[in-house]
Amino acid sequence: MPAKPSVAPRDWASQPPYVYPGYKSTVKRGPTRPLLPLKSALVQRNAPVYGHEDIGPLDHDLTRNAARNGAPLGERIVVTGRVLDEDGRPAAHTLVEIWQANAAGRYVHKADQHNAPLDPNFLGAGRCLTDREGRYRFLTIKPGAYPWQNHPNGWRPNHIHFSLFGQHFASRLVTQMYFSGDPLLALDPIYLSAPERGRGRLLSRLNLDVVGEAGFALGFEFDIVLRGPHETPAEA
After folding, report:
1. Catalytic residue check, 151
2. Residue 20 among the catalytic residues
C-alpha cells in the first residue's frame, strides 16, 4: 500500500495573517475565533484524482482557448515552474488552475466594472496537470494593472492567481504570482500582507530559456511549494 502523505507544520512566519487591516476585505471575512483542529484522518485524505481526459488540449494556452476572430492583444508570456510538496518532492499529476486580468487590466466578470476594454479573444482562465516532475506550463498574456476600491487611488500590480489541490486536503493552496521589479508591489496591501521573509516566494523569475522559440514570448519561472518550511504564501 502507498504510504500516507505526511503533513508538515506550516511556516506561519511567512504566511499572511487572516486579518490584515490594510487589505480591508479581510477584516470582514477573516476568522476572529480560534481555529478548530481537524482530525488527522481528514487532514491526510487524498485529493481528487484527475486524468488527462479532464483537461482540454488548449486549456493551458490562454492565447487560444477563447479566441474568436484572432489573437488576444498584449504581451505574450510563458509561465512555467515546478510544484513541490513539503519535502521538496515533485507533486506529479496535480491540477493547477490560473485566472487573471487581460492586458488592459480587466477581468471577464460582471463584477469588474473597471473602465477598460474587454478582449473578445481572451477569457483569462486556464488549467493544466503537472507532469511526473511536478512541472506545469501556461502560455498567456501579461496581465495589466487595475484600480481597486480598497483605498484611494489604489492599483493592483500585475499578477496571476493560482489555485492548486496538491496531493491531500492539507496541501490545498490559493496564491498569486507577481513580477519582480513592479513598482506597485511596494504599495499593494495584498502583497505586503505576506511577511517579508515570504514575499520573495511570490515573485516570478525572468528566464528566456523556458520559451523554446526565440523572439516568441518572454518566459517566467514560478515554483510553488504546497506546505512546509518553504511554503508559498497563500492569498490573504
Report:
1. no
2. no
